[in-house]
Write a structure and sequence with these properties.
Length: 320
C-alpha cells in the first residue's frame, strides 16, 4: 500500500499513526540520555539524545523515520489543566535505536528563556522534563504521527539533499541511518546549520559515516564563526548551494533527487530563493509551485512567502 501525494510526487509508504493516544498513552522507560553537541560549548544550548524502551507496547515496531512521537509531561499548567502533549521528531532509524523497533529516540534542546513581561526565568516545560530524565525513569508517550515527511516507498529510486538547522537534524539522522543500513543505491547529501561548530549535533557520527560511506556527503554551515577549513565561513545552509554548486546543482537538476528541509521557520525561504536563482523554470517548478500572479520568487516578500509559494512534488518541508 502507498500514499500518492501531489502529482508527480514519489509514492510514500502507508504508515501507522496514533497507535498510542493521549487518552491511552504507552509507558516508555528511558534507556539513554546523552549530550549530542560537540562539547566546549560557545553558546548556551543544551541538547540531548534521549531514548525510550517501548517494547511490549503498540508503539514498538510501528514507527518510521521522519515521523514524530508525543510526550506527555507530568503536572499541570498555570490554569490547573494537565500539560499538553508535545511532539518530538524521531531521531532513530525505523528499526529504533536497538535495531529491533523497541527503542524510540529524539533529540531535545532545553528551552531556557526570560518571561518578556516579568523578566523572570522561563524554563520550557516539556524540553526540560525530557532533558532531566534519567535512565530507568518512565514517561508517557503517544504516536506515531506524520505521514508526509518520510522517505519514499522505494528509497533507492532517489537521491537526497537534506537541509537541517538545529534540532531539525532529528528526522535526517533517522533517514540517513535507514538509507545507509539498507545500503540504498542513493546519493545522500546532508547540510547541517548551527551557530557555532560546538553546536553541531551528532557531528561525530555524521563525520564517521561520511568517511565510511562513499554515497554519503556531510556539509556544515556555521553562521556565527569563521571556519576556513570547512571551505566557507559564517553562512546559512542555503549558501552551500553556491559554495558547492558543482556537486549540488547537477543533483538538483537530476530527476532522481528529492529535497527535504527541516528546522527553523523561514529557512525554506532562503533555500527556495537560491534554487530559483540556480535552476531553470521547468526544473524549479518540480520543487515549488508559485501562486498565479505572485511574480518572480526573488521579489516575493518573506511574510507573503508561505501564502504564495508551496512545496512541489520533489520538496518536503517541515519548519517550525
Ligand atoms: P543565527 O542564529 O546565527 O542567525 P540553533 O537551532 O542551534 O539555534 O541553530 C539554528 C541555525 O539556523 C543557526 O545557525 C541560525 O543562525 C540559522 N538560521 C537562522 N535563521 C535562518 C534562516 N532564515 N535560514 C537559514 N538558517 C537560519
Amino acid at each position: 500500500m502507498s500514499v500518492q501525494t501531489e502529482q508527480g510526487s514519489p509514492k510514500l509508504p502507508e504508515l501507522k499513526v496514533n497507535v498510542a493516544t493521549p487518552a491511552n498513552p504507552v509507558v516508555g522507560r528511558v534507556v539513554e540520555s546523552r549530550q549530542v553537541t560537540r562539547g566546549g560549548r560557545k553558546s548556551a544550548s543544551f541538547v540531548r539524545h534521549v531514548s525510550f524502551d517501548v517494547s511490549g507496547t503498540p508503539l514498538a515496531g510501528s514507527f518510521r523515520a521522519g515521523q514524530s512521537f508525543g510526550v506527555l509531561p507530568p503536572g499541570t499548567d498555570e490554569r490547573g489543566k494537565p500539560h499538553k502533549l508535545r511532539l518530538y521528531s524521531l531521531a532513530c532509524p525505523s528499526t529504533g535505536d536497538d535495531g529491533e523497533g523497541n527503542v524510540v529516540a529524539t533529540v531535545c534542546k532545553r528551552v531556557i528563556d526570560e518571561h518578556w513581561e516579568t523578566h523572570k526565568l522561563f524554563l520550557g516545560v516539556a524540553s526540560n522534563y525530557i532533558c532531566d530524565l534519567q535512565p530507568g525513569d518512565e514517561a508517557l508517550l503517544t504516536g506515531p504521527s506524520g505521514k508526509r515527511f518520510v522517505l519514499p516507498e522505494d528509497p533507492s529510486k532517489h537521491d537526497y539533499i537534506f537541509f537541517a538547522t538545529g534540532t531539525g537534524i532529528a528526522p535526517f539522522r533517522a533517514m540517513v541511518m535507514d538509507l545507509l543500513q539498507a545500503k540504498a543505491d542513493s546519493r545522500i547529501v546532508l547540510i547541517m546549520g548551527s551557530p557555532y561548530t560546538t553546536d553541531l549535533l551528532y557531528d561525530d557520527e555524521f563525520t564517521k559515516w561520511a568517511s565510511e560511506c562513499s554515497n554519503f556527503r556531510y556539509l556544515t554551515a556555521i553562521s556565527r564563526e569563521y571556519v576556513p577549513e570547512a571551505g566557507a565561513s559564517k553562512i546559512y545552509v542555503q549558501e552551500r548551494l553556491k559554495t558547492n554548486a558543482d556537486e549540488l546543482v547537477p543533483m538538483l537538476m537530476n530527476p532522481r533527487t528529492l529535497v527535504y528541509v527541516c528546522g527553523i521557520a523561514g529557512m525554506e525561504v532562503g533555500i527556495i530563493r537560491l534554487m530559483a536563482d540556480l535552476l531553470p523554470e521547468d526544473v524549479l517548478s518540480q520543487y515549488v509551485t508559485v501562486k498565479d500572479g505572485a511574480g518572480p520568487i526573488a521579489l516575493i516578500d518573506r511574510k507573503e512567502f508561505g501564502r504564495q509559494v508551496r512545496a512541489g512534488s520533489r520538496l518536503f518541508l517541515e519548519v517550525y
